[in-house]
Amino acid sequence: MKRIKLVENMRAKLDEVFSKYLLFVGNGVEREYKKCYIKIPSEMIIPYKVMKTSLRQLINHIYGKLNDYANNLDAMTTRAILTTKNEFVDGINQLFIEEFVGDMVKYYSFDQIIDNNEHSVTEEILNSLVFNGIPPHELILKKNCLIMLLRNINPAEGLCNGTRLICRHFERNVIDAEIINGDYKGKRVFLARIPFVPNEGDKCPVQFKRTQFPIRLCFAMTINKAQGQTLDYVRIYLPEPVFSYGQLYVPLSRAKCAASVKMSIKPSNCNKYCDRTKNIVYKDLLKHVDEDD
């Protein structure tokens, strides 16, 4: 068995300066201004203001007039806002769907307690519960809006966790959608509600089952969900620093050149600068890999 080391970012190979910067960020050798904090090039920065203002700036930078893209699907599907947590993703997607052209369609989940002896939890409480990988009780959609699949439904036909789609038509119990990425791009599929149960690690106060369409909006998505994707335009929203290994490198490296990346960083007590953020890299781990080679 031969070990092969990846040393070049193929997406950004036509922008040598950006490619080198990505390599430095990924290897943890970009200059640190304090422990783990690095400076982002000024041309990538959109100065952070209050939350809603900063989000609207990001939306305007990536889409301009959002409704112009409702019928320009190729352009719309090659851009995204990336952030760290689902709570930030949900807030951004809510702004998007409110401004997106078209009539709203709402789908509600069917939530039920698994333990029939548990009577203290009301349906309203179940509806309010939110967990990673489980769709919300209320799904708000519009024709041509972007969605992402949350489960492996049929990998052999391109329906995998993380597949991006566009809503084409709505029925009471079926959503007609079109795959927009991967080998099955352009394929029309029909999605139905399926059951979801929280994982043990979710620390759910009560065992319950939610039956809902296995999707969520994805004008914005978490950094982790963006792994492996190539985008023409990337906007990175960091109201909090990244919290895991490689989580800064991933969004920066989704684009092909520096001009395609913009970032908004919220200053904090730990970091008062809007152009510096945390870069978490396990240098000792990389060192051992290099020594093994």
From TrEMBL:
<dbReference type="InterPro" id="IPR049163">
    <property type="entry name" value="Pif1-like_2B_dom"/>
</dbReference>
<protein>
    <recommendedName>
        <fullName>DNA helicase Pif1-like 2B domain-containing protein</fullName>
    </recommendedName>
</protein>
<dbReference type="Pfam" id="PF21530">
    <property type="entry name" value="Pif1_2B_dom"/>
</dbReference>
<dbReference type="InterPro" id="IPR027417">
    <property type="entry name" value="P-loop_NTPase"/>
</dbReference>
<feature type="domain" description="DNA helicase Pif1-like 2B">
    <location>
        <begin position="124"/>
        <end position="167"/>
    </location>
</feature>
